[in-house]
Structures are given as C-alpha cells and as structure tokens.
Amino acid sequence: MATKPTACLVLADGTVFYGRGFGAPGEVVAELVFNTAMTGYQEIMTDPSYASQIVTFTFPHIGNTGVTPEDDEAQEPVAAGIVVRWDPTLPSNWRATEALTVWMARRGRIGIGGVDTRRLTRAIRQQGAPHVVLAHHPEGLFDLPALIAKARAWKGLVGLDLAREVSCAQSYRWDEGAWHWPRGFGRAETGKPFKVVALDYGAKRNILRSLVAHGAEVTVLPATATAEDVLAHEPEGVFLSNGPGDPAATGEYAVPMIRSLLERDLPIFGICLGHQMLALALGARTVKMSHGHHGANHPVRDIETGKVEITSMNHGFAVDSQSLPKGVIETHVSLFDGSNCGIRVENRPVFSVQHHPEASPGPQDSLYLFQRFAESMQNRRA
After folding, report:
1. DSSP three-state, residue 237
2. Residues 198-224: pLDDT tens digits?
C-alpha cells in the first residue's frame, strides 16, 4: 500500500511535486536552484549566499556523511530547504556527530525526498529558476491553491537586499586558520600579520580561515559599514565577501563605501557578491542569470595565463563583461557559458573573482588568489 505524501514542492506555474518530508514541518517560499556538487551538502546549506533559496541536489546520495559543527559555514543553516532524489541516508563517517534529518529538524529547515530531481533540474535549466513553495506536513494536508498563490505572489530576488539580513550585527575578530588533520583548525604562523578588514555580506567561515592561513589578522565588519568605519582600523587590505541577493540592491549602500576605499592606495580583494560589488563600484553592471551557477565542478579559464581551474560556484547574478569600463580588465571567464568570473584594475592591487577559491573542488586550483592578496599587501609594506 502506497504511503501518503508528507511534503510537496509547488511551482508558481502550478506544477506540483510530491514526496516524503523530513526535517522541520512547515512551509517556505523561495527561489528554486539546483546544485551539482557530489559532496558538501552541509556547507551548502550553511552558506549565507543561499538565503531565500531552496536547493535541489542533483547527486542522489545526500546524508551519508552526516553533519559536524566543524563544517558549518555560518552559525545557522541559511538555505530555506532542500530537495533530494532519495531519502537522506544514515551517516557513515567517523567525523559525523548527527544525522542530517535530525540536524535539519533541530535547525528548522524543511526537506523533501523521493522527487524526480533530474526532471526538476531540466525544468530549471530550460525555464529558469522558479519561485516555489516547499511544504512539509506529517499528515499530508496541503491547500494547493493557496500554496500556488503564495508562490506566484513572491517577488523574487531581483531588487532584494539580503546581505543586510545575513551579515554580522557588530564587528568581531577572526583568528581561526585552515583545518589540518589531526590537529583541527590552526592559526596563522607568519611573523607580523597583515591587518585585513573583511566586509561581511554573508561571509563563509572558510574564506576567513583562508585569509588567516595566508597571514592576515582579520577584523570583520557588518555589510553596512562606512568607509570611515573601515579606515578606522587602519587596514593594509580590504576583503569584500560573498553573500546573497541582488548586488544592485546591496550596492545602494556598499558601492559608495567601496568607491571611497578605491581612492586610497589599498589592496582590495572580492569574492562572489564582493566581486559584483567591486564591479558596480568601478562602473560596471550586473544582470540576473536564468538559473545561475551552483556546483563544485565549474571550469573557469584564467585569460591571462590560459590555465583552466575547476571551481566551486554559487551565484544567480553576474557581472556584465560588456559594461566593464576602461582600465578594468576581465581576468577569468566561465567555460560553461562565457560569463564573467573575474576582474582586476589595471596597475593597481584591486581584483575579484566570481568563484570560491576557498572551496576545494580542484582541490586547490584557485587558492593562489589568497596568496596574490597577501603579496599585494606585502608589496605595499615594502
């Protein structure tokens, strides 16, 4: 006898996918994206860049490594929910401290299993990232007309400033470095550390760890910090972090601050939303992508060296390379669709990339970018 569905995924066009719910009961409205990574579901769920998004995992084995506090990229999970092909499996990993389903229930996140994720992924690729409602009810009670209306009424990510919501409330120091087995997270082992101010638009912990591992003493400031707030710390370099939402909306307060910093002789490095913020401050435009880039297998070509890097990506907006002003050079492009993945300012230590060099898909193809940032600060000292 077939069991009654306890969860449903309702698209704004009226399409309904039924499945088995897990995690917390309830409902949430968000944009639906797919992620092609084979590992790292916990890092994905706690990546602040996934705010107001539900993630469809194309890889079917989700849950098999469990969860551990060491792998959280933020204090709490940020992705609104997940969609998987098979129900999450019990963990089989010596590092696991908890099962994914238990962790999600405790953290108030909704999941649905038993969904044809291949069909769903094809729909997202062909029609763009839809607005959806994910609902989980233990007794399978759903008001479908109301759920469809809620999905259609949601305005989406365009024009939405989410960085302010996921940013820290006040400044703090970060001194934790990269993880090495068996001793765990380390500390910087260089001499005099570089004083770096990191603007938190939704910063991942592993980015901050990578800065420390390359000799930085990191002070993290909220997304709404002013140029005066940044300069008060007398930084030797400024980092612009990843984050969610529409870069043009966040740029309303971030761009004037970055433009003020660009008037100084300061090395500046940006990743993901930080890359888009820098591009906007330099006079370029950003555009909404159809379904974005979400995965750990994205090939990116370094135009200046010809090297191809396998990268981790998570973004739904992109810098329009045709809008880059004179003196701003495109440095990296996606080999999937030719979209912009990096820029630098001519003859200045100011650069940024769309992908995530702190992640490990290559596994360290792009880690040189942190070294480049450190070298630019060292040159400034000299």
Report:
1. strand
2. 999 999 999 999 999 999 999 999 999
**356 tagged catalytic:** yes
Q: What angle do CA 233, 272, 283 make, to 5 degrees?
A: 80
Place of tokens 């940044």: 230
Q: Angle formed by the axes of helices 368-381 and 205-213, to 10°?
A: 50
Q: Please give the structure tokens belonging to residue 60.
A: 């079917």
Cβ neighbors of 189 (< 8 A, separation 6 or more) are: none
Beta strands in 229-307 (DSSP E): 237-240, 268-271, 286-302
Catalytic residue among 272, 293, 315, 332: 272
pTM of the model: 0.96
> Residue holding tokens 């090939």?
299
Say whether 358 is catalytic: yes
Angle formed at CA 332 by CA 330 and CA 336, multiple of 5 degrees: 125
What is the pLDDT at residue 189?
62
Closest to 285 in 3D by CA, of 344, 217, 340: 340
DSSP string, 177-234: --EETTTEE----SSS-EEEEEEESS--HHHHHHHHHTTEEEEEEETT--HHHHHTT-
Interstrand relation of 184-185 and 179-180 (parallel, antiparallel or unpaired): antiparallel
* Residue 8 designated active-site: no
User: Tokens 């993901």 label which residue?
Assistant: 272
Answer for the pair 83, 120: CB distance below 8 angstroms, yes or no: yes
In the chain, the domains with their CATH numbers are: 7-153 (3.50.30.20), 163-381 (3.40.50.880)
